[in-house]
């Protein structure tokens, strides 16, 4: 009985293997012919965060709306771990056949490179396709705070170095980086208090445990709209489309603080993907970012959009990487 | 506001809403019963499925999943001694002994009614008192969170009455497990040994599945040769047995309050609510010695509280956009996918959706009663399966469940390591609940203390002043001291052994 | 028996707490306040348990769920369970989830009860297929793929 079973099993196995071999050969035979009309099968988008966070929600939205422009479905695959390192390593190591995309988040990825040792990828391991999201930092205070303007806050911080409690996602996050850059460029010293994400900063502000907060604008929008929080300055060079009333940091302080902490999120592929495939992808995401249905849905969900094409995106990352080198030591410890 | 509520109420009784709630509840019971599938994961997995539905229907389904899985985790806790979800951890302490006594049916009936009452009462709080209760949530600062965590840690002492030393050791082990990963305040990686899979810390579900399922499987296989496994008989009249619940009005009331308050204070979640209510029931009981040996109060207190925690946790989630627990964090994602931005305007901008959702939660908390009793009646047959079949089934569920959380096989390996730890602890008579509590509260205690110190610029004396002058902090300090004093007293009376008092801080 | 177990356990814990303490004191002070305090506490508690196990062997067996004699009857169950699970998890990336789960269930049942060949085969295939269907098709979880499915 057992013998019989085994025999049958191996017979079955042989069949399966034979089928697989045939399948693989077929795939090889078919694939070069269809290179021109890439993509011919669903594309995987690796999101290096859990299926719940902001990146994941945005990626799923993108996957849903880019399908008509790309002609194929995009399947989101979550590979969380080590604040993104696991997922980005997987993208870097993926087959450069154009069927694996990655969702990148900068400066988080730059911070990982700068702060950790033995990170198994280089920034040059990727081709940057398009930036989709831009979430700049905003300085917010409770509505009855004595700081009426950004200048009030800066003045207080100058007079009382290290006394001003400012809360943000951290430590060593992009908003922590932004706080450090503000300190350096405005010549002030604040007491940065880390929270696990921008979300928990909001109730700490509402409950007046903090003097000020530096969350990403997208997590602060509902409270700012409801006048639960007052925004003093947006750390960016352009006004925020949903809330154009928030003054830019340059207008508020006169200093052009560089918005390096603004979280940029976009699409990457591993290097080695052929130029024509890159062009196809670039075209699809360019069209997506003009799709009124997508824009409407993103606005409704509070996902702040900002399109950069491949060239702009990689240049922005390159200059950020250079600039980050000046600040990285301030984040350690 | 009343008009908005009425719109929501009427909306809830559309057939597609009812169907959605029903589907969510059925899915939730399955997710909750199966060891290896947690509430958080159930909700996370359901979100993409609701993508194509209208917001109200999608949320109703998510709510059904949430409520039913928090409840049904107790079924496997009672029958198998494996918590189906993390919030059912305290339910095991008395639930399983009840099942061993042949009272599985009674235990499940009580857990069902307790969950339903807990869920519905907390939902009433959500409906009518959300804004003032949200204000209470804002009163919790870093110091208060730290004290909540400390209070939870003192409970380890009282649930490990058999052997305080071992209980504390287990708790400290849990605290160490919680420290694995990136330090919240400095970004230093501790105890990660350079393994990227450990950088973000260990998921509590992974630990829980490992700690309980593999040792239980071994236990099951060992017993099978030596003695007949206890027949799990679900006696008739489950429905009638539910009403025994109302004899314990005092415990029920206290558990409700505990559950809702712990829910509102973001961070700790259902497992802490269950433990605190259990501890409270035991402390106020006339027969504390019966706890741990299968007393109905033990089951109904924590089941009331862990479902009451749900409505509480939704309050800050909906009104402030701050998730009250891990499940609510996922839920928040679901809200946003449906275009709802949690925050002060949610209740006025999308009244039919949000009130529809709250009313559908009432339905969810009622729907699982008949479904749960049915599952208990027929599902318990599953437990009578021969151990040789049940054992590989549980192992498979544990493996796939841990894999599915993050899609990483490393989590499965971690689960097995925790299985080994759980086995050793169990063999040596060390209560595993301590480890769970330590793990749940560890990072909260540590990072909130660090944050509290940072907020007063390192001036610890100011922190001590705050602990006495802030009313909530003061209450928590008193609670901690009472709980400690109680543990030491019972320990001292129970076995006049010279155990160093006050070792746990 | 319980005393011997306590002895072994407390020795293990003493070693573990020393390792943890050494590691904790290596970390910079502001990241290691908790682990330092706790490792010392753990060491103290382990020593206390060790001392107690030497001094007075407890009268009753306080092992959790396991009855005394079951252990000696089938000594190898823990090894079997952990061994087979390790094998199973190792197989997953090679054979894929579906095949390895079916094989694991089939093997586990058959190994412990030779008479249940048919039950094992049917249950193995049906249960793994059902799991695959629920997780993959309904819930959309990406299950591990090997080079067989």
User: What structural class do you assign from the helix and strand content of chain A?
Assistant: alpha/beta
Q: Domains counted in the coordinates of chain A: how many?
A: 2
Q: Report how far apart the termini of chain B are.
A: 48 Å
Q: Which strand order does the major sheet of chain A show?
A: 2-1-3-10-4-11
DSSP summary, beta strand count of chain A: 11
Structural class of chain B: mainly alpha
What is the fold's blueprint, element by element?
The complex is a heterotrimer of chains A (333), B (505) and C (149).
Chain A (H helix, E strand, L loop, with lengths): L1 H32 L9 E5 L6 H17 L3 E5 L6 H9 L6 E7 L1 H8 L10 E10 L2 E4 L8 H10 L5 E5 L4 H13 L4 E5 L5 H6 L5 E2 L3 H9 L4 E5 L14 H5 L9 E8 L4 H14 L3 H10 L3 E4 L1 H15 L3 H4 L2
Parallel strand pairs in A: 1-2, 1-3, 6-7, 6-8
Antiparallel strand pairs in A: 3-10, 4-10, 4-11, 5-9
Chain B lengths: L1 H11 L2 H19 L5 H12 L4 H26 L8 H12 L3 H35 L3 H18 L4 H16 L1 E2 L6 E2 L13 H23 L11 H4 L7 H16 L5 H15 L11 H25 L5 H12 L8 H4 L1 H33 L3 H20 L2 H19 L4 H24 L4 H10 L1 H24 L11
Antiparallel strand pairs in B: 1-2
Chain C lengths: L1 H25 L6 H23 L12 H6 L3 H19 L1 H16 L4 H22 L11
Helix pairs in contact in C: 1-2, 4-5, 5-6
Kindly describe this structure.
The complex is a heterotrimer of chains A (333), B (505) and C (149). Helix content of chain A is 46%, strand content 18%. By secondary structure, chain A is α/β, with parallel strands linked by helices. Chain A has two domains: 43-134 and 263-331, D-Maltodextrin-Binding Protein, domain 2 (3-Layer(aba) Sandwich), CATH 3.40.190.150; 138-253, D-Maltodextrin-Binding Protein, domain 2. Chain A has a six-stranded mixed β-sheet with strand order 2-1-3-10-4-11, with helices on both faces. Chain A has a three-stranded parallel β-sheet with strand order 7-6-8. In chain A, strands 5-9 form a two-stranded antiparallel ribbon. In chain A, helix 2 crosses helix 10 (275-288) and helix 2 (54-70) runs antiparallel to helix 11. With 505 residues, chain B is an all-alpha fold. Chain B has one domain. In chain B, 75% of the residues lie in helices and 1% in strands. Chain B has a two-stranded antiparallel ribbon. In chain B, a hairpin with a 6-residue loop joins strand 1 and strand 2. In chain B, helix 4 (55-80) packs antiparallel against helix 14, helix 5 (89-100) packs antiparallel against helix 6 and helix 6 runs parallel beside helix 13. The longest helix of chain B is centred in the first third of the chain and has 35 residues, at 104-138. Chain C has 149 residues and is mainly alpha-helical. Chain C folds into two domains: 2-71; 74-138, no CATH class. In chain C, helix 1 (2-26) runs antiparallel to helix 2, helix 4 runs antiparallel to helix 5 and helix 5 runs antiparallel to helix 6 (117-138). In chain C, 30% of the residues are buried. Chains in contact: A-B, A-C, B-C. At the B-C interface, helix 3, helix 8, helix 9, helix 17 and helix 18 of B face helix 1, helix 2, helix 3, helix 4 and helix 5 of C.
